[in-house]
Structure to design on (178 residues):
């Protein structure tokens, strides 16, 4: 059983001041750019390590950008022993589409996808310039970057983005657990 809730129901719970816990499983740059007020961030890749920060005595509502990672996180949390876990259908996109407000950090890193495009583009330009002015084999770096981006699109996954999520400016500031 994988219960889910829509954003209207979640909003109603927040208005009624029901005790619950909203867990955001996106990466810090996404969270900082906009989140459901009161949501607590633990990126999906850190769930196992930070499981002690998730309360056992409250229902946990898992949210991400569109509902894909939160569904995966819900299954993972259930395997880890959390019984009261509910997926928020449609994620933050649905929340915003419903007209509900979001909280934003004052200073946010660029979105990971934008950082990825900058890094890939810079590598291609650099490799072509090095190929022209230093040695032609440097052009192969552009081929590798282009191939990696194409593969990432085909697989709908990107190792470069996950690597960039680990860079210092993409780390969430340390906050005490609730």
């Amino acid at each position: 059983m994988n219960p889910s809730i829509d954003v209207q129901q979640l909003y109603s719970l927040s208005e009624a001041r029901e005790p619950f816990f909203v867990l955001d499983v996106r990466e810090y740059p996404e969270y900082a750019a906009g989140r459901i007020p009161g949501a607590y961030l633990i990126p999906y890749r850190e769930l196992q390590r930070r499981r002690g920060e998730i309360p056992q005595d409250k229902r946990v509502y898992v949210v991400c950008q569109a509902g894909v990672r939160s569904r995966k996180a819900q299954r993972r949390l259930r395997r880890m022993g959390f019984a009261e876990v509910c997926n928020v259908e449609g994620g933050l996109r649905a929340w915003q589409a419903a007209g509900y407000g979001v909280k934003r950090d004052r200073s946010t890193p660029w979105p990971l996808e934008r950082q990825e495009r900058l890094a890939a583009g810079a590598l291609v330009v650099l490799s072509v310039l090095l190929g022209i002015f230093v040695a032609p084999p440097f052009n192969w770096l552009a081929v590798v970057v282009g191939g990696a981006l194409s593969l990432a699109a085909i697989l709908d996954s990107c190792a470069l983005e996950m690597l960039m999520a680990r860079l210092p400016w993409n780390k969430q500031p340390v906050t005490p657990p609730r």
Notes: Residues 87 and 134 are 53 Å apart (CA to CA).
